[in-house]
Amino acid sequence: MAEARAPARPQPKVLVVEDAGAQLEVLVYNLQAEGFLVIPATSGEEALLLAQEELPDLILLDWMLPEVSGLEVCRRLKLARATKAIPIIMLSARGEDADRVRGLETGADDYMVKPYSVIELLARVRAQLRRSRPAQAGAVMEFGGITVDAEAWRVYVEGRPVHLGPTEFRLLSTMIERPGRVWSREQLLDRVWGRNIHVDSRTVDVHVGRLRRAINQRGSHYPLRTVRGAGYALG
Question: CATH code at 110?
Fold first, then answer.
C-alpha cells in the first residue's frame, strides 16, 4: 500500500521590482529555478499596485526606479497595514554606508549592493522567509498548547495529535505564524487557497469552523476568534 504524502505547500511568492530588463530576467530565472512564484514589476507604481493585489511573501526592490523610487516604494509599503509586514530586500548600486543606513531606516529588512552574488541573494531570500513565513520553511511553531510541525505536517494540542485536513492545516499554519493578528477572509483566501483559485469567501468560514472544532475537541478551549466585519484571529 502506497504511503500517504502530505499535500505540497504553496509556492512562496516573490515580487521582483527591477527596471533593467536583463537584470530582471536573471532574477526571475534563478528564483523560479529555486521553486518561487515570481511576480515581476518594472516601475515603482506597478510595484505598489502589485504588492497590494498579490500580497507577496517577500519583495526584491531596486532603489533606482522610474517615477517613484524604490526608497519611496519601501516607505509607502511599510506604512500600509496590508503590506507593512512583508520583508523587503533592497537592491542598489549605492554602496556607501550612508546609503545602506538610509535604505534600512526607510524600512528595508536587508540591503544588497550591486553587483551581487545570486547565490548570496537567494540565501538572504530564504533567511527572510524563515523569519516571516516559518511554516513554509518547515519550522515547528507553538502557541499556547498548540504545536504545528510544518515539516511533518502534524498538529498537537496539549501534546495529543490532532488530525486536520490539508486546508485546515494550512489555515492553522498561517494563523499561528502571527498569533493575535486579524486575518481578513481575502488574506486567508490568498494565503491558503492561492489568488488564482476562485473560491467564495464563505468557504473560509466553513473551514475555520472545522478547524475550530478540531482544535477544541476533548474540552479544550483555544480561541479562534471571529472579529466582526474584519475576519479571524488565533488568540
Answer: 3.40.50.2300
170 in the same domain as 123: no
Q: What does the pLDDT read at residue 151? A: 76
Is 3 contained in some domain? no
Across the chain, what does the average pLDDT equal?
85
> In angstroms, how far is CA 148 from the centroid of its own chain?
17
User: Which structural domain range is residue 151 located in?
Assistant: 140-234
DSSP readout, the chain? Answer: -PPP-PPPPPPPEEEEE-S-HHHHHHHHHHHHHTT-EEEEE-SHHHHHHHHHHH--SEEEEESS-SSS-HHHHHHHHHHSTTTTTS-EEEEES--SHHHHHHHHHHT-SEEEESS--HHHHHHHHHHHHHHH-TTTTT-EEEETTEEEETTTTEEEETTEEE---HHHHHHHHHHHHSTTPPBPHHHHIIIII-TTS---THHHHHHHHHHHHHHTGGG----EEEETTTEEEE-
Which residues are 222's β-sheet partners?
none
Residues 19 and 128 in one domain: yes
CATH at 214: 1.10.10.10
The residue behind cell 554606508 is 97
Residues 162 and 217 in one domain: yes
Q: How confident is the model at residue 200 (pLDDT cuts 50, 70, 90)?
A: confident
Residue owning grid cell 498579490: 54
Task: Supply the pLDDT for residue 218.
Answer: 63
* Cell, residue 187: 488574506
Give the chain's end-to-end CA distance (angstroms, integer): 40
